[in-house]
Amino acid sequence: xxxxxxxxxxxxxxxxxxxxxxxxxxxxxxxxxVYRYIRNNIRTENxxxxxxxxxxxLDRKFHSKWKPAYQFRLKKYRxxxxxxxxxxxxxxxxxxxxxxxxxxxxxIRDIICISLVRIAQKGNILAREEIIKLVRFTIDxxxxxxxxxxxxxxxxxxxxxxxKGCIRRYRYSGTFMGYLLKTMEYAGRGLPSTSxxxxxxxxxxxxxIEFCYNSVSI
Length: 218
Fold this sequence. Notes:
Layout: H1 3-17, H2 24-30, H3 32-41, H4 51-57, H5 80-89, H6 103-121, H7 125-145, H8 156-169, H9 176-188, H10 206-217
């Protein structure tokens, strides 16, 4: 058995049994051989079962049905070694937070994010800080290029608060960066702009720029 075979089996079970929700216990009950394979072979950098890798491979329509067991509030701690394991594994690909070139880079970016998010959700404050530092490169680019996020310019501390909230709330449905982007788009609609000048469209004429500056100074 390999991961593709395990995923096909889970997909078929979900189609046949049509549960409202499922988790690792459901898989263990209905496909114990698949559960054993995942438990023994699909592991994160820090040794826990990598359910993100499994759920990400399922048919998209099943992503929202995954409901992991509730985690009680954990004690906060600082353990740099957990963070370093992830960063060393992906060291050569950290450029994806600054300039991803294609969909493959975006997928790698999300894999790195989710690995750190799971560590942060266990209580590791250093993992949360590392995520904030990395995704801020991407967010700064979003603010420059996505009109829906223009209002976030100048709200530095608020951006960090929303990243922390997304880290805390993220579960298993969709990509983390996609979840973060949508959260910021919705929240940004009510933010006051801190810029004194309007954003300019590409290729705007020098005459229009001069008019805008004069209008602001009046």
